[in-house]
């Protein structure tokens, strides 16, 4: 080698090469002009972020294992749910006023086992194929439910016929551009009537790793996070759709999960892998509901008295304020 020349790279005699940094701290994907290159570098950047997050998680876990019992308690992450603004209408199960309301409201005959649920499921006028299939699948989830199609008949004429035939609830599935987008649930004969916006509808064939067709067993019903007076009423409306005594041998469960005022519906079957391990298998369909209004009595769009209406500009002033 000539005079003054340094050691050859990789011969082990020189200082170690610094670790190559994939992205500098000031790196910005938006500065890349080429669209394909920008997309590729964004994916690389996201991959690096995941690796760094995973490495930090492993490091913290090893530190906690080394400290043993002296490890500090795990910090509770801040979420929108646990930072929720307190609602003065939150239900206390031991409140005498709540107990009196439950004993005298429109759902009392159901909870006192004086009535047996009988559900009519119908659609908006001239439903398309997707809405028809959704109604048929919904009827396999709710026992003792019957699907009929409107054929131009007004809801005001349908409701008296339902009452005369001993139906306890009416479900109307509305659609827009061939997609189910609304659900009206009316408890008969005296109401109330709830109007929901429906989204994220998935039929059985669109669900990955779905189970076999549901059986005719009465499913178990789970209602999560319906904590306010309004949410309590909505939860009782959903409960009144299903018969009282679930047939646990069928291992089927219908879940209405309220999170940030969005009601997620899932229909699962328990899979017992062993005496200690239990899995769940989704059967479908699935959908998401958002309450738009709650009306006293049966459906009356012109003269109906509303208990609650969602007014977006007035009510959605805080992301941590929820109504159900």
From TrEMBL:
Cited Pfam families: Brix (PF04427)
GO MF, any single term: rRNA primary transcript binding
Presence of keyword Lipid biosynthesis: no
Main location, first listed in the record: nucleus
Record's subcellular location: Nucleus, Nucleolus
Keywords assigned: Ribosome biogenesis, rRNA processing
Gene coding for it: Rpf1
SUPFAM superfamilies assigned to the protein according to its UniProt record, in alphabetical order: Class II aaRS ABD-related
Lineage of origin: Eukaryota, Metazoa, Chordata, Craniata, Vertebrata
InterPro entries reported for this sequence: Brix (IPR007109), IMP4/RPF1 (IPR044281)
Disordered: annotated segments: 1-21, 48-75
GO biological process: maturation of 5.8S rRNA; maturation of LSU-rRNA
Biased composition (Gly residues): 1-13
DNA repair found in the keyword field: no
Stretches with biased composition (Basic and acidic residues): 63-72
Described function: May be required for ribosome biogenesis.
GO cellular component annotations of the record: nucleolus; preribosome, large subunit precursor
PROSITE patterns membership: BRIX
Organism encoding this protein: Irena cyanogastra
Name of the protein: Ribosome production factor 1
Domain Brix: 117-300
